[in-house]
Design a protein that fits this description.
single chain
Length: 82
């Protein structure tokens, strides 16, 4: 399995987790630095009443928090709508 396929499967799993928790729509996202997942997110617009809480934004915020920086130029974003 390619690394891309591996990571997109993790993004799909994030979408499923969000749906199981009724967080929002079926969207999942991860941020990867090298081969390490540094951020995760799922759509939380409904559960948080925050129209900016899309999966990608949640994952970016998580990555920035985990890396203690807003600079993510060496990272990749994988996102899914399931």
């Amino acid at each position: 399995m390619t690394r891309e396929k591996k990571f997109i499967r993790v993004a799909i799993a994030e979408a499923k987790k969000g749906m199981e928790r009724n967080d929002g729509g079926p969207f999942g996202c991860i941020i990867v630095q090298g081969d390490t997942i540094v951020g995760r997110g799922n759509n939380r617009v409904t559960s948080s009443n925050d129209p900016t809480a899309h999966a990608e934004v949640v994952a970016i915020r998580d990555a920035c928090n985990n890396l203690s920086t807003f600079q993510l130029s060496d990272c990749e974003l994988y996102t899914s709508c399931e």
